[in-house]
Specification:
By secondary structure, the protein is an all-beta fold. It has no helices and five strands. The strands form two sheets. It has a three-stranded antiparallel β-sheet, with no helix packed on it. A two-stranded antiparallel sheet has the order 1-2. It is elongated, with a radius of gyration of 11 Å.
Length: 60
């Protein structure tokens, strides 16, 4: 597992996510540890190296 830090698109706090580098393309929803709002995470690995990461505000 790879720990990756990013900024919440709602409260702007830095939070961390544990990412699985064995899966090349991932999209999932995780709640912010601080404000509890849902964040859509898009993760891309190539040869188990993180090459793309995006944390998106889910419009509700």
């Amino acid at each position: 597992m790879l720990e990756h830090f990013y900024t919440c698109p709602y409260c702007w706090e830095e939070i961390s996510a544990l990412l699985d580098p064995s899966i090349s393309n991932q999209t999932y929803i995780e709640d912010c540890e601080v404000c509890c709002n849902p964040i859509e995470l898009h993760v891309i690995f190539e040869n188990e190296e993180l090459v793309g990461f995006d944390a998106v505000n889910i419009e509700q």
